[in-house]
Design a protein that fits this description.
Elements: H1 4-10, H2 22-36, H3 41-52, H4 60-72, H5 77-84, H6 99-105, H7 111-122, H8 127-136, H9 142-152, H10 158-171, H11 180-188, H12 194-201, H13 206-219, H14 224-233, H15 237-250, H16 255-258, H17 264-273, H18 284-287, H19 292-304, H20 309-319, H21 326-339, H22 345-350, H23 360-373, H24 376-383, H25 392-405, H26 412-419, H27 424-440, H28 450-460
Helix pairs in contact: 2-3, 2-4, 3-5, 6-7, 7-8, 7-9, 8-9, 8-10, 10-12, 12-13, 13-15, 14-15, 15-17, 17-19, 20-21, 21-23, 23-25, 24-25, 25-27, 26-27
Length: 465
């Protein structure tokens, strides 16, 4: 049993912020900045009002908490505050001469006040000051813009460079930015800024990180092991794709390892990098990939050397048995539906045999393939009995195929089956059949009256109840 000393050691201690009200103030400002960063005008104006209401003297902890929250807020917040301040709410002069006061005065409608604020920010260090300078590089006054650009281009500290890039990326589409992002990118290619590039690669902002990864690849900052690791495991898809493409440019033999990536775009690049004489057996997995774009790239490899991919699909489906993985079988069915013809429908229907039921994933893929390949007049007879499939995905695939190709031939009782299923997606798909079929009929034959609708059920021999 744990003694009192051990219990005291395991007890979690509550650490107090030594500054009076420091933790509470930081939490409030972080909450306000986070809400304003979502872009709602009322939240932005409320935050600007709170910032302007801060006293210039006597509240250093509060001002420090507000500045820290602004620095950690989404990069789009500064442009939003700048736009909200154009109505005349920003200070026109005076106030504190700290970074927060200068940043607020840089939002002023008066160009002379903004120019003086830029001069003050040029003499301050830190990410917040540099972010304010980056914001003014798209100013509508030439004097303010030129001073901000000159002050920004001499900053080289990694944290300041990252803060500048975050804001410049949000201003890149503005005409007044004048291509500064391109100039700043060229500046970062120089040796003194290599450390700043490495900081950008690990930045929390997605846009800044993509910018840093692309720049690092150009500069050769990535080792080949890092390229493979990033291509396989990075949290951002653009970064994964960039690193995969560079790795394949350097070592095409790595395509086999990239085929195991979880990202479909990386797998597509890997399939495209395979040699032209790759055996068809090695393309079976890409041909049956769960992503359509990967399957299409694998088929293109076979088309390029004159081999019909449908023959590979038919051969592999013929060899499939109980030990065939479900995902592979579903991919083969989906791929055959994309490049086969009506002669492949019997092979696909064997996957839908109720006496030997396949996995739901396989049934969904086979239903979609039959819906694309079967003749229109045979579609209802083939897929209609599957409208009561216990898998909602398979039932939805049935109604989607019927709605796409044969809505006018679907009997009322099949539509009714879809309309009473408990799954909302299936009911919506069934409703599309009724809507398409009704729209296809001439206006004078549309059954609009209740007695006409009852006559349709009478003729079909079924009741909706």
């Amino acid at each position: 049993m744990t003694g009192p000393q051990e219990a005291g050691l395991l007890r979690r201690r509550r650490v107090r912020d030594p500054r009076p009200g420091g933790a509470e103030a930081g939490g409030r400002w972080a909450e306000w900045c986070g809400a304003a960063g979502r872009g709602r005008p009322a939240d932005v104006e409320a935050l600007l009002g709170r910032l302007l209401a801060l006293p210039a003297e006597g509240a250093p902890q509060e001002r420090a908490a507000a500045l820290a929250a602004l620095t950690a807020a989404p990069p789009r917040l500064l442009p939003l505050l700048d736009r909200a301040a154009r109505g005349g709410g920003a200070p026109t002069g005076g106030g504190a001469d700290d970074v927060l006061g200068l940043l607020l005065r840089s939002f002023a409608p008066d160009g002379r006040v903004r120019e003086a604020a830029v001069e003050g920010l040029a003499g301050c260090g830190g990410p917040a000051a540099v972010a304010g300078l980056a914001l003014r590089t798209a100013d509508w006054v030439d004097a303010v813009r030129s001073r901000a650009v000159a002050a920004l281009l001499v900053r080289s500290a990694p944290e300041e460079v990252a803060a500048a890039v975050r804001v410049l990326l949000r201003l890149a589409g503005r005409s007044r930015s004048g291509g500064l992002l391109v100039e700043y990118r060229a500046l970062l290619r120089r040796p003194p800024h290599r450390r700043a590039v490495r900081v950008l690669v690990a930045d929390a902002d997605r846009a800044a990180r993509r910018f840093g990864v692309a720049l690092a690849l150009e500069l050769g900052e990535y080792a080949r092991g890092d390229l493979l690791r990033t291509a396989l495991r990075d949290r951002d898809q653009v970064c994964r794709t960039l690193c995969a493409q560079r790795l394949l440019d350097l070592e095409p033999d790595q395509a086999g390892r990239l085929l195991l990536a979880g990202d479909a775009a990386v797998r597509e690049l890997a399939v495209a990098a395979l040699p032209a004489d790759v055996p068809a057996t090695r393309l079976v997995a890409p041909l049956a990939d769960r992503a359509r774009m990967v399957r299409a790239q694998a088929r293109w490899q076979l088309y390029g050397r004159g081999e019909p991919p449908s023959a590979v699909y038919r051969r592999q489906l013929g060899r499939a048995g109980r030990a065939t993985p479900v995902r592979l079988l579903a991919g083969l069915a989906a791929g055959l539906g994309e490049c086969g013809d009506a002669a492949d429908v019997p092979a696909l229907m064997r996957l839908l045999d109720p006496r030997h039921p396949s996995a739901p994933m396989v049934r969904r893929a086979a239903i979609g393939a039959v819906g694309r390949l079967a003749a229109r007049e045979e579609l209802v007879g083939l897929l209609g009995p599957l409208a009561m499939d216990p898998d909602p995905g398979a039932a939805r695939a049935v109604f989607e195929a019927l709605a796409a190709r044969a809505p006018a031939e679907v009997p009322v009782e099949i539509c009714w089956i879809g309309s009473v299923r408990p799954e909302a997606a299936v009911r919506r798909a069934a409703a599309r059949i009724g809507g398409t079929g009704m729209a296809a009929q001439p206006a004078r034959t549309r059954p609009r009256r209740p007695e006409v609708r009852a006559l349709r059920y009478e003729q079909s021999g079924h009741s909706p109840r």
